[in-house]
Specification:
Structural class: alpha+beta
Shape: elongated
Strand content: 15-25%
Order of helices and strands: HHHEEEEHHHHEEEEHH
Low-confidence stretches: 29-60, 152-178
Number of helices: 9
Number of strands: 8
Length: 269
């Protein structure tokens, strides 16, 4: 076939076209931009979770959980655990309480009330729950031991500002924490059993008073349950052992005053 033949030119042109198409196909990118964008989306979402979890951990770092001593009562052990934040009780729970028979019913009724009272007062200076004198007493002792571990025996004076006598203490809590002293008086024997008082003194004032021992058993339990909270309140209000006896609790009142005075003597008061 001659070089100038028309059919030859057509064949050569067709071959050149095919070669051009093959070359374009080999130069096309192997990756798809749309697919690459889709793979990047989950990675961006996964990075959000670690940032959020880190913030939660930092927020919980300021809380302090403290477990009090186990206090044995005639009906079983009582042990209290508290959580404190910023010097205040934010939660309270009895990790041990009397159980079995009637004790289970008593604990179920009294413990929630004691937990609530601890949070409201911010201290162990709480009233005994009616019908649960032993559980209440054990709860208060264990709660106080937990607060002592936090060095909060003085700070709790501010939390119990519900009474008129402790209102002054709440105003001085910020600057007088280091000056607070917890003092336990001598155990005074009465015809119905020993009475022993423990007080917290801040800035020369009684900010808290409680009976760590009081007559119990039979009628004495009821008398102590009624008289001791009144004597505690009177001691804080008076700031001394010069308080009136509670009607119907002459022996308990006398022992309370004597033990209170011995505690004040230790403070030079």
């Amino acid at each position: 076939m001659k070089k100038s033949h028309p059919l030859r030119r057509i064949v050569l042109a067709g071959a050149a076209t095919v070669s051009g198409i093959v070359l374009l196909l080999t130069l096309k990118p192997s990756s798809d931009p749309a697919a690459a964008s889709a793979e990047g989306t989950p990675q961006g979402q996964q990075s959000v979770a670690p940032q959020g979890s880190g913030g939660v951990q930092a927020g919980n770092g300021g809380d302090q959980t403290l477990t009090g001593d186990v206090v044995k009562t005639e009906y079983g052990n009582v042990q209290v655990r508290v959580t404190m934040s910023g010097g205040k009780i934010t939660s309270a729970a009895a990790v041990q309480a009397p159980s079995g028979g009637r004790s289970t019913e008593v604990s179920t009724n009294s413990v929630p009330k004691l937990n609530q009272a601890a949070i409201q007062t911010g201290s162990a200076d709480i009233d005994a729950v009616s019908g649960a004198t032993y559980t209440s007493g054990g709860y208060k002792k264990s709660l106080q031991s937990a607060l002592d571990k936090a060095g909060a025996s003085s700070a709790t004076g501010g939390g119990s500002g519900g009474g008129g006598g402790s209102a002054d203490a709440s105003g001085s809590t910020g600057g007088g924490t280091a000056q607070a002293k917890t003092l336990t008086g001598t155990a005074v024997e009465t015809d119905y059993g020993p009475v022993q008082v423990r007080i917290t003194v801040t800035g020369g004032k009684i900010t808290k008073s409680e009976a760590v021992q009081s007559p119990s058993g039979g009628r004495s339990t009821q008398i102590s349950g009624d008289a001791v909270p009144k004597l505690n309140q009177a001691a804080v209000a008076a700031g001394s052992a010069d308080i009136d006896a509670v009607s119907g609790a002459t022996y308990t009142s006398g022992g309370y005053k004597e033990s209170l005075q011995s505690a004040l003597d230790q403070a030079g008061g």
